[in-house]
Write a structure and sequence with these properties.
By secondary structure, the chain is of the alpha/beta class. It contains 13 helices and 19 strands. It binds 5'-deoxyadenosine (5AD).
Length: 463
């Protein structure tokens, strides 16, 4: 009765938290299973960032509650952001849930499950759900374990920071993730070294606002910021070939970070830089402390450091008070930046955030039509940028078989997915691929002879 399945909703931080919980559970003797139909313990690691995400997880938990009622041995848990946001209140809707564990208590999940199972085995009736949503000092340091899978893992997420102090007026994250806390750089470097020793070639450093990494608690010199110093240390690790990070905040994107792209070739030609809106009035109302012009200046600075730089972003449409003119500014900003990809979100009211009580909430039809209009602009731009790569040779880090299992998949330095034919033993290798076809988000190609016409002059690796 120890087979656990963890279903994850939401962002990469949540995925990383789930991985760490899985690794901790496995170290305790639990079995992590890929199918939820085969599990004895189902843990839903949830997201609260938009109402739809919460409703999805609540719907799933309600559905699984009937299994819980039928099978007294089954364990159902809700972890993460929605557990933190709603706490014991979830039990009103979901009285059969056994476990509600917030974002600072993931590392306690093995103990809670051990206790629950021991009590059940001893026949002790467990009347009440375990609800744990407290603050825990140092909890950011507990997300560090990785599970070794059967296949080779080429790319890994590494959590460097938890929480957020920015207080964007739309956002629930300061409430679900708590104050900003960074892990010590030495711990992060050690984790990356261990991953490299296991064959990982690409690390993505994760945090709510990675550009603020270490600002609160590390020595501030005149030179590079703690985040850039961390990048330098990870860059020096043999075996790590690529470094990505998400998400930076435009406010913290200074010259030293742009310069890092000139100095550190393992940083690919891609930055995910959330803009949220192209209108200064909306940015102000969102409490985003930068202007459209400052954002564009950062984009120009990065294109200066790496001409092939690709950008992706997060955008909210229909923020309270957003006019047609404001929206038009967002649209023209998208054209100006020429994004490879963007996540577009319709503004979702989050109870307790300042924007929830702002006047001029935008009707849903307007939010929807702006959403569609922007998606169309972005789709056309992505396709154009994809097609421009046809005929070029790209350096691809091979991740393994594609969805069909028949071909290989990997990513370019600019984070574009590429599908091509080749032997499975190439997983973890950097190979040149000549691009022959392109869809909005995926490139198709064929292995090129070693060193053939790579279009990436900053490429650090001789092929
Ligand atoms: N409504 C819609 N989108 C939101 N995001 C955060 N809060 C909200 C909200 N209330 C989006 C932002 C953020 C991304 C992770 O989710 O664009 O960058």
């Amino acid at each position: 009765m120890n087979r656990v399945h963890i279903k994850t909703y939401g962002c990469q931080m949540n995925e990383r938290d789930s991985e760490a919980v899985a690794a901790m559970l496995r170290a305790r003797g639990y079995r992590i299973v890929a199918s939820e139909d085969d599990c004895d313990i189902l843990l839903l690691n949830t997201c609260s960032v938009r109402d739809a995400a919460e409703q999805k997880a609540i719907g799933k938990a309600a559905h699984e509650s009937s299994r819980r009622r039928r099978d007294p041995d089954f364990v159902l848990g809700i972890l993460g952001c929605m557990a933190q946001n709603r706490g014991a209140g979830l039990l009103d809707r979901l009285p059969d849930v056994d476990l509600i564990v917030g974002t600072q208590k993931f590392h306690r999940v093995p103990d809670y499950l051990d206790n629950l199972r021991a009590a059940r085995e001893a026949g002790v009736p467990v009347a009440e759900a375990i609800v744990e949503t407290g603050v825990e000092e140092g909890s950011q340091n507990t997300i560090r374990d990785h599970m070794e899978g059967p296949g080779r893992q080429v790319c890994a997420f590494v959590s460097i920071q938890q929480g957020c102090d920015m207080n964007c007026t739309f956002c629930i994250v300061p409430r679900t993730r708590g104050d900003e806390r960074s892990r010590p750089a030495g711990d992060i470097v050690l984790e990356c070294e261990e991953l490299a020793a296991r064959g990982v070639r690409e690390v993505t450093l994760l945090g709510q606002i990675v550009t603020s990494y270490g600002r609160r608690d590390q020595r501030q010199g005149d030179g590079a910021s703690p985040f850039v110093r961390l990048l330098e240390r990870v860059h020096a690790i043999p075996g790590i070939e690529r470094i990505r990070f998400t998400s930076p905040h435009p406010r913290g994107f200074r010259r030293d970070l742009a310069d890092a792209y000139s100095r550190l070739p393992k940083l690919g030609e891609h930055v995910h830089l959330p803009v949220q809106s192209g209108s200064d009035a909306v940015l102000r109302a969102m409490n985003r402390p930068y202007s459209r012009e400052r954002y564009l200046e950062i984009v120009r600075m990065l294109k200066g450091a790496r001409p092939a730089m690709a950008f992706s972003t997060d955008i909210i449409v229909g923020f309270p008070g957003e006019t047609d003119e404001d929206f038009e500014r967002t649209r023209t900003l998208c054209e100006e930046v020429d994004y490879d990809m963007a996540y577009v979100f319709k503004y979702s009211v989050r109870t307790g955030t300042p924007a929830a009580s702002m006047p001029d909430q935008v009707p849903d039809e307007v939010r929807e039509s702006r959403n569609q209009a922007l998606l169309e602009v972005l789709r056309a731009g992505s396709l154009r940028r994809s097609r421009a790569l046809v005929g070029t040779v790209q350096e691809v880090l091979v991740e393994g078989p594609d969805k069909t299992g028949l071909r290989l998949t990997g990513r370019t330095r600019a984070n574009r997915a590429v599908v091509f034919d080749g032997p499975g033993r190439l997983a973890g290798e950097l190979v040149p691929v000549e691009i022959a076809g392109a869809s909005v988000s995926t490139l198709y190609g064929a292995l090129a002879p070693a060193g053939a016409g790579l279009q990436t002059p900053a490429c650090p690796v001789s092929l």
